[in-house]
């Protein structure tokens, strides 16, 4: 985790990648609230990143926040994420 923090603190030409990788690591550690903050950082750098919206939606789902999950998944679908439609069918109906 400290490697991600170091890259983020020093700056990078690809901040969205650094934020996404940290979010994924936090998600794997079941630190879902923190992961969502880093997915939000990805989105603030690149609001067309369908994968960040998808992963954010799936993380909200892990927290039992269905409405928030569905909002993020629908944005991911609109941006072309290939897995979003299936998850919307499962989680949002």
UniProtKB/TrEMBL annotation:
It comes from the Bacteria. InterPro entries: TPR-like_helical_dom_sf (IPR011990), TPR_rpt (IPR019734). TPR repeats lie at residues 16-49. Coiled coil: none annotated. Keywords: TPR repeat. This is Uncharacterized protein. It comes from Niastella populi.
């Amino acid at each position: 985790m400290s490697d991600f923090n170091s890259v983020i603190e020093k700056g990078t030409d690809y901040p969205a990648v650094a934020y996404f990788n940290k979010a994924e690591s936090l998600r794997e550690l079941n630190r879902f609230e923190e992961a969502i903050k880093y997915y939000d950082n990805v989105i603030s750098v690149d609001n067309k990143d369908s994968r960040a919206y998808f992963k954010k939606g799936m993380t909200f789902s892990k927290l039992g926040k269905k409405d928030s999950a569905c909002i993020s998944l629908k944005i991911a679908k609109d941006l072309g994420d290939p897995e979003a439609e299936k998850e919307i069918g499962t989680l949002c109906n």
